Amino acid sequence: MKRLFFIVLVVVLSLHVSGQTKLTAEQQKQLVEKIDKAASAMKSMQCDFTQTKSMKLLKKEMKSNGVMYFKQADKLRWQYTSPYDYTFIMNGDKVRIKSTKSTQDINVQGNKIFRQITNIILNTVTGGGLKSASDFTVEVYQSDKGYFAKLYPKKKEVKQIYNVIEIYFNSSLTMVSSVRMIEKTGDETLVNLNNLKANVAINEKMFAVD
Amino acid sequence: MLPLMRRCLLSISILLLTCLNPVHAVQVANDSVVSKEYNLLMQVRGHEVTAICIMNMEADAHIVGTVINEFGVKVFDFTYDNGKAHILNVFGPLNKWYIRKVLRGDFSFILSNIGRGENVVKKKRRLDVMPNGDINVCDERYNINYLFTPIKAENEITE
After folding, report:
1. To pair with A194 at 20 to 30 A between CA atoms, which of A164, B25, B109, B127?
2. Which residues from B are below 8 Å from A51, CB to CB?
3. Is 0.90 topped by the overall pTM?
4. Domain covering B33-154: architecture
């Protein structure tokens, strides 16, 4: 009896500590469809973001801020404004990277790792990655703060970098509110998306790579 | 009996405080680190890679640092002690023995000279302090260039 009580206590406590419940396969399917539908309906999006990098070895965090613009299907401008200037522009297969000291144009098709990374960025920003079963094993959870998905990479190139990527959604499941990327080394990167505006007009010049 | 016990407990407390205080003082001294953050531009045989280099320089010249890309993905970690750098946790596709070897040699040179504030030439490596505060390091043997641009003013951090 004492042992049973102890087991129940441990289970209850662990549930309380984790505060998250894994959805059943059917619940997950319905939720992923809802998120995917919302991602498809979103023709454009812009927001501010804050990125917090936690470095295990240095026992410290580095915060950076920026702005993001997205346009269906594959146009993205991810721009850091402080404490460093760095702009990543994706327009189809072309990528332009601008920093204070250098500008580079890259064709994503010819670079497997780069293609994986740009896919991750696009899919996590829109939430569209939940359906790409070949890239990730997806688990969806409900917590006190809402729904979130854990994406376990399947592909070798991504597995070399990340253990898991967590995508958190807003309460109406229409947008991603934050992304947490946990690396193999234990370092973490948390990106919070703020002041999200969907389906707004964005000048094509923001995605110019030529 | 009670006063004796009280005196005994007081003695134990004083003894514990006396023993613990010096340890605490040493910890505070050792935890005093200077943190530096740089934009890093690496040029390797015509290819350019940008990253962020963050390092904690401790009072005893021990350095712990990391190189991450702007999105936060770790490229590699490094430590420096007694004139030698160690390269750790190298980003998967770059984790080859010959890459680690070149980085180890270059970072041993960089970390032993970056705090000097003057130009240094040693064998086939050169470190130049630019007038704008940038630090340019050239590995002539492998044709690699590292440009460190300070992100913000140095700040004393006592963690």
Report:
1. A164
2. 71-72
3. no
4. Clam (2.50)
